[in-house]
Amino acid sequence: MSDFHDMQTKLAETGYMAGESLAMALHLAIALGRPLLLEGPAGVGKTEIAKALAQVQDARLIRLQCYEGLDASHAIYEWNYQRQLLAIRADGVSEEALFSEKYLLRRPLLEAISQEAPPVLLIDEIDRADEEFEAYLLEILSDFQITIPELGTITARTRPHVILTANGTRDLSDALRRRCLYAFVDYPDKAAELAILKARAPELEPSLAAQIVAVVQALRREDLEKKPGVAEMLDWAAALAGLGVNDMAQAPQAVQATLVTLLKTAADQGAAPPEMIARIIGKVA
């Protein structure tokens, strides 16, 4: 990558519209070989950045989905006990042979440092994992090596491009932040969201695309329990297109019925009555 504008252009070619600050963060993370921590509301496309980067780099995407109680056996490695037991019964193999790579199950972190070509490692929603796991992750992100007592230390063949995402479930440690570059990913502004929609659904009528973005942006300004993200916006566009809607003003019932793709709680659906949607559409028309 010559500069961050090159990164921005290549991301756009995959359908991901990144602002200059995000493109710069990605460019620097790759140039410096540092993990990139992305924070922001759910649904703004943080996970999609890793997918787009994998496309740009023509790299394998390896994903670790974090959750409360995540431990090393699910994130790093575990032994294939069933296969070991079968081997003992069949061959009577030695203990040393049982704990060899033949019986090793590589989980996402070990898999990522075992690749010949640098993969994109997505550590998704790190703030859902326990603090103990986060602490364990620090060593891997610093040295890109993993120690397996029976095999020794395995050092990365090539350093993966690491993307961590967080939605603010809990505060992350200063130690983790020190090891990462950082970018905050917010909801896209009107122009950026319209560009995303045009890139992902080029078949939409321009007037319908403008209506979709106007309604979604207006809904995000409401006091909703869960504001619609970019993914929900794209779902809504697909639903309207699937119903043959080209102008929301001509299909108010279809518009109201398909709001289920945007609004995911009863309270939020109640906060978007037909009059309000019609008013927003009227302003765009």
Describe this structure in words.
The protein is of the alpha/beta class and 285 residues long. 49% of the residues lie in helices and 13% in strands. It has helices spanning 4-13, 20-32, 46-57, 72-75, 81-91, 95-98, 108-113, 131-143, 174-178, 190-200, 206-220, 230-242, 252-257, 266-270, 274-284; strands spanning 36-39, 61-65, 77-79, 104-106, 120-124, 145-148, 152-155, 161-166, 181-184. The strands form 3 sheets. The chain has a 5-stranded parallel β-sheet with strand order 2-5-8-1-9. A two-stranded antiparallel ribbon has the order 3-4. A hairpin with a 3-residue loop joins β6 (145-148) and β7. The longest helix has 15 residues, at 206-220. It is elongated. The mean pLDDT is 91.
List keywords for this structure.
5-stranded parallel beta sheet, elongated, alpha/beta, 285 residues, single chain, 15 helices, two-stranded antiparallel sheet
Summarize the structure.
The chain has 285 residues and is α/β, with parallel strands linked by helices.
Helix- and strand-based class?
alpha/beta
Principal-axis shape equals: elongated
Strand content: 5-15%
Oligomer: single chain
**What is the ordering of alpha helices and beta strands?**
HHEHEHEHHEHEHEEEHEHHHHHH
| Distance between the first and last residues' Cα | 42 Å
Widest sheet, order of strands:
2-5-8-1-9
> How many beta-strand elements?
9
The gyration radius over C-alpha positions equals: 23 Å
* Average pLDDT taken over every residue: 91
**Largest pleated sheet:** 5 strands, parallel
Low-confidence stretches are none
Total DSSP helices: 15
Helix content: 40-55%
